[in-house]
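Worked Example 4.2. Consider the chain below.
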Amino acid sequence: MATKKNPRMNQLGNISSIPYPIPATVKALGEPEEIFPPSTQRSSLGTLIGSLLAITAVLLFAIGAMLLYCAVHPFGTNPPPAAVCWGAGTGLTLLGFAALFGSYYYLSGRGDNKQAYLIFPHCLIEIRPAQHRFIAWESTRQIRRTSKETTGE
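Applying the procedure from the previous section yields the following structure tokens:
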């Protein structure tokens, strides 16, 4: 068993630290040796992607609104046809809504990693909010052995 307790990384057998229900098949295995709960910190990459999508949404809305206005009140010496303005303006506005949804998804934290890992003597269990999977240590040994043979280590 590990002797260090780092709240950001792993915890010693405290199954209540996982924020979603534990499946009955996992509970039947008893207390894990170590738990790697999902991070409670926000992902920097998610914040960056959400911010970029928000900026993109504003730009798409601005260009789409300008094209929709051009469809109703053409301006300039040689304006594009109204059908082009309607089609492009509507398309860009819809893309703006998609970027706005994506921005909300990432900035609200829904796009963050929600996986937890439980370490037992005979297996590793990966738990997500809607599913889980058992990974036997023997299968990881076979994969490591195969990768060592492939790389020549």
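The first strand starts at residue 34 and ends at 36. The two ends are 29 Å apart (CA to CA). Compare this with Example 4.1 before moving on.
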